[in-house]
Amino acid sequence: xxxxxxxxxxxxxxxxxxxxxxxxxxxxxxxxxxxxxxxxxxxxxxxxxxxxxxxxxxxxxxxxxxxxxxxxxxxxxxxxxxxxxxxxxxxxxxxxxxxxxxxxxxxxxxxxxxxxxxxxxxxxxxxxxxxxxxxxxxxxxxxxxxxxxxxxxxxxxxxxxxxxxxxxxxxxxxxxxxxxxxxxxxxxxxxxxxxxxxxxxxxxxxxxxxxxxxxxxxxxxxxxxxxxxxxxxxxxxxxxxxxxxxxxxxxxxxxxxxxxxxxxxxxxxxxxxxxxxxxxxxxxxxxxxxxxxxxxxxxxxxxxxxxxxxxxxxxxxxxxxxxxxxxxxxxxxxxxxxxxxxxxxxxxxxxxxxxxxxxxxxxxxxxxxxxxxxxxxxxxxxxxxxxxxxxxxxxxxxxxxxxxxxxxxxx
Length: 411
Known about the structure:
Elements: H1 2-11, H2 20-28, E1 37-42, H3 47-60, E2 65-68, E3 80-82, E4 85-86, H4 89-99, H5 110-121, E5 127-131, E6 148-151, H6 159-162, H7 166-174, E7 180-183, H8 188-195, H9 197-204, E8 213-216, H10 219-222, H11 225-233, H12 238-254, E9 270-273, E10 276-280, H13 284-297, E11 304-308, H14 315-323, E12 328-332, H15 342-352, E13 356-359, E14 386-390, H16 392-402
Parallel strand pairs: 1-5, 1-6, 2-5, 6-7, 7-8, 10-14, 11-12, 11-14, 12-13
Antiparallel strand pairs: 2-3, 3-4, 9-10
């Protein structure tokens, strides 16, 4: 029931209306028990892993905690990670049934409704870790009062919604700052905004709790003994190590010890087998970081990139980053209307002058492929080294294929 309901929400077009979620929350709030310590995570890259490092650490130190993250890879329940596991179907249905009591919930968009589900699910928790979706100032997660705001790396993404340059993108994120602030390494333009954060928040009346202090991640934080030992134990790439160090300075502020278990989240430089790495990423900043780590992991040996992307991403820039470091690019064909059409992708690859192939995991839309592409039968062999890099839709479909790859067709 919850899945069909959320599918219908996803198919609806709910025009952006910044005051809608605030109005709905004001109606719902009297029916909720909101006693958790709230942590807000805002940024372009690294939100999911930073939040999960914190969440697992809190749980290991005997605190009940919910981590709201997005999007999911396989199952909508993955967005709600509570007390060391994703929530059960029964618990999610209970939260859904609770919200369905209120007629005004029908107005909520997909992400707004997911946010309200997180609030219901977290009512018994000591901590609530909320990850912003897009932006910050008008994001539905910004309806709460937060004790801590964490800014992961801010880069250029979602330009159609947030602005054309890094300063305008950062500005809408920083307007959501509340409480004690913790910040990852940032570009100079973003740091300049941090230096004017009090002024920005007062002017925009966005500071609800009062900004107490800004804590910046330092190089020495990455080289602390705890971080070194953890990163070595789990062979952690540099960008995850930085996110771990950012999480750790938050944990130190809270008086909580760093987690001891492996990071429990899919698609973050995940080693499927010795020759296959899967990493979620959809912008230039992520592409550069992932490329550096892939080169180190494969010891500068050649590898093949498996890729696909939504139409609104900077595909040419991302492919250019990888072009001179891979032997070939394989476009993993996705049956998704948001993904760039096959012929348009082919045109971009032709212009880049890179060796490429298309792989269709389920033989859908074969007629869309240009006839001059060679057609194969059988499955993708995955011999050699492979990096799977792209958005959640690519990662989801690749992993689904990987675990049942005997029935695939290569095009």
